[in-house]
Amino acid sequence: MIRCKLSILLTLLLTSSSTYAFTSSTSSSRIGLTTRVTPTVVVSPSPFSTPKQQLFAATTSYDETNKKSFRKQLQNAFKFNNKTLQNKEVEGEKKSFSKRKMAMKMLSKAAIAFSILLLTTSTFAPSATAAKKTAAVAETATAAAEHLHVGQKVANYFRSFGLPDVAILAIISAMPVIELRGAVPVGLWMGLPITTVLPACVMGNMVPIVPLLFLLKNEGLKKLMKPILDRAEKKSSSLGVGTLDKQWASLAAFVGIPLPGTGAWTGAMGAFLLGMPTGLALSSIFAGVVSAGCIMSAITLAGKKGGIAALAILALFTGKEFLSSKEEKQDFLEADPYWDQSAVPVNVYKNKAPFVGKVVSTKRIVGPQATGETCHIVIDHEGNFPYWEGQSWGVMPPGTREKDGKPHAVRLYSIASSRYGDDMTGKTGSLCVRRATYWCPELKADDPAKKGICSNFLCDTQPGAEVMMTGPAGKVMLMPEEDPSTDYIMVATGTGIAPYRGFIRRLFTENTPAGNAYKGQAWLFLGVANSDALLYDDEWQIVKENYPDNFRLDYALSREQENKKGGKMYIQDKVEEYADEVFDKLSNGAHIYFCGLKGMMPGIQDMLKGVAESKGLDYDEWLKGLKKSKQWHVEVY
Question: How many Å apart are CA 561 and CA 558, to the nearest integer?
């Protein structure tokens, strides 16, 4: 729908821009006076109108190259008391939606009327006095030595080779320093009509973008362009927010509004780094390039009023995708009542008849000093592969085993999203996968013959790649939601964080019945090697900031922290620091979860046994009681 609207918008703007050259008898003198163009900067409010939408936007954006500063920006941007607002939203949901809908209609009418008024007044013939002033200034400008900007100098250089002006304009538009926004005024300065300038600039700007998106897949080129790509990722980190329609709209606006650091080149690099599908990225960039051309044409021909009008229309149609949709209540995948687990789907798809999903995006989510590479992979299942938080997907890597020629065995991965998916449509699911490699001491390098087949397959996937899946599997890690005051103690090492991300999103990020009712405390313990290896830290900090009474967070960084004995801080050492609180919570009905490498459990159980004995408890009986009451949940690999 939004693409249709933008198409209509761009057609109208093209038509309007084409008429500028013919609606005023002094258009040629205007062209001569506008060889330098400074775009008007329009600062618009956040397109996410409610706390939940803001929190969702923040939790789906990553900038791993500068986690701390990015987290601080997010926290400053989205500070609010969510618990108070949540109750008000639930009570007045229908009324607020009707008001928002009415406000959007009024905003649409006002923006369109305002834009038409500006465009109309901009194209009227100037008064006699204004015409005399314009002519006088034009004569002065002609008599004086002309001060040329970069685009004009480049154009003159290419003119010396006898190239046609249209070809020169296309070449200038393709250059990353100038692009379309600098080429449009140059084309008018060259004396070309806007009906020639705009198509030439659009096509020229798009020509290098298509090969760029494919060339960036080359590892050598990525390393060579790393400083540029890092800057592009910082500028475009927010483009991966929400559904594909929202991504398309945000990328089009990013490319279309002529501000420093934006444009087709930066947009293409950002879209690639964020894992946006190539077709989606290209169509969005094209729409943004056309929009930028219309805006620059309006600014150059009609002055500030024309630029403001064009920007207002673009902001209206791109922003409407965000502002017009009320905060959806996530309840369309709930049981009745929501905590009833009698119909949890299990093993719907099996090895002989697997489900084929398609990768939406694959993104590295750890810093450069992390021990290994961990990726967040979003898979589209079109709503045909339902699952619950805490379940796993089986993945069947392509190919066959060398030893017997049989298909590879299924590998299980805990699902790292709620049942609604990262885009909250109920049609995607996410995996958190660490690339398994083997360091050969003889080769002094990774041995490709011993690398993890499935993890490397998943971490290497590109948007559109097919993934054969089975499941969903397991019930042991499900959350008991019948009592909303239940405390959850979640202990993870590395990618064992996956099921807890689904828990936390359901309880604090999404507008779910479970989240609205929850009054307990969710306590997350995560063990990794160092700060760069932390997973989803930006999301946890946002939740911690806004739910300080309901969410606790503790990290065990083995290479950066020391335990009380002066040794490395492992996950069991961090839990032991709060042993009294943990045991008290468990005695009051809390549920404790363990997920990660199976090597974590002996150390944890030894620690728990020592604490139990210090309290005069029989550890075996204590553990037996937890298992009997279903408070003990373990999933290790």
Answer: 6
Is the per-residue pLDDT at 557 higher than 60?
yes
Q: How does pLDDT run across 22-79, given as a tens digit for each residue? A: 333 333 333 333 333 333 333 333 333 444 444 334 433 333 444 444 344 434 433 3
Q: 16, 414, 430, 455: which is the annotated catalytic residue?
A: 414
Nearest to 241 by CA among 311, 313, 318: 318
| 3-state helix, strand and coil shares in percent for the chain, rounded to the nearest 5 | 50, 15, 35
Quick one: tokens of 417?
């999203």
pTM: 0.62
Asked if the model's pLDDT at residue 313 lies above 70, the reply is no
* Active site (annotated) includes residue 250: no
CA gap 465, 240 in Å, rounded: 19
Is 619 labeled as catalytic in the residue annotation?
Answer: no
Q: What is the mean pLDDT of the chain?
A: 76
Could you read off the pLDDT of 395-410 as tens digits, one per residue? 999 999 888 888 999 9
- Of the residues 349, 387, 413, 420, which is catalytic? 413
Pairing of strands 374-380, 355-364: antiparallel
Q: Is 414 a catalytic residue?
A: yes
Closest CA to 251 of 234, 233, 232, 238: 238
The C-alpha atoms of residue 123 and residue 303 are separated, in whole angstroms, by: 10
- Catalytic one of 201, 294, 454, 595: 595
Is position 413 annotated as part of the catalytic site? yes
Q: Which of 7, 157, 382, 637 is catalytic?
A: 637
Active site residue 595: yes
